[in-house]
Design goal:
The chain has 355 residues and is an alpha/beta fold. Helix content is 45%, strand content 17%. The protein has 15 helices and 11 strands.
Amino acid sequence: MLSKTEIGEIREHLEKAQNPIFYYDNDADGLCAFLLFRRFLGRGYGVAIRSYPEMNAEYLKKVEQLKADYIFVLDKPLVSKEFIEEADKMQIPIVWIDHHDMDAGELKKKFSEFKNFYMYNSALSKKKKEGQNAPTSYLAYKITERKEDIWIALMGCIADHYLPDFAEEFGERYPDFWTKEICGPFDVYYRTEIGRIAVGLNFGLKDSISHVVELQNFLVSCKTPGDVFLELETNKSFRLKYAEIRKKYDSLLKGAEISESQKLVYLIYGGDMSMSSDLSNELSYLYPDKYVLVAYKKGAITNISMRGDKINKKLDKILKQLEHATGGGHEGAVGARIETKDLEKFKELLEGEIG
């Protein structure tokens, strides 16, 4: 968790920002973190970061277009030095709020020269035991402290596989969106109405940029979780995209296979839309005692999402045995990018690592 001093500093940055731009990672945690700050401030523009693996300098075009005076980067583990350099030349402060594990020494060496750069990462905090590994939406909620936004914060947390300390409070306030016998975050995500909405946000972010902007604006105006799926003209594109993706998603989920060793659940697919992170999360929920590999093939490149006990260490070993392969993530959830020709080898190496 961030310290009281860090939380205070972030609030000061927010108050100084008259026309801020919020860049957020393209998932429900990132979106909900943006919404919490936007609703707290009453101003600012949100931009989903779709570049992989790092946020590059191309995104500064939006800063110039909107004449932003402050940059906030939310839930993005990799930001290019070029982005920081160019923003520094524009004399625009950058506030980077994140929760992913990072090398503190390397980051300090990489960015220490920039005077208008401020980094806040709960994974580097001395108070790690309190709110350890809490997602960015959790941090944003603790910073903004708006009880009326508890439902937004909860969605961001459960979508990032984290059950926050205010989950029970949410259940008491919104019993129709809750259920009994909650043991973990994915029980909420896959078994409750608030979970269905959180899934919907992840699906909505796969839409066109213009429709994502519409979704942002609509969510800023919502008073309660019950507003999200109301049949309104302002959320029509979101509801249509959700229905479209839900159908594809359910079909893909049924196509998952189990390896001969019975230790691995895998799914390899293609098409015009990647849903690997979503699919791997639900497969890990359905098969909690197995490792999960979901691979999305797109031409010469395959994007991989994996889940399982200490899967990050297994991925590190595998990447060293492949050329042009990159990846990383959390202890139990990782992503990778490999050449499609190496997919079968990757799968074999993974099965070797899990025994």
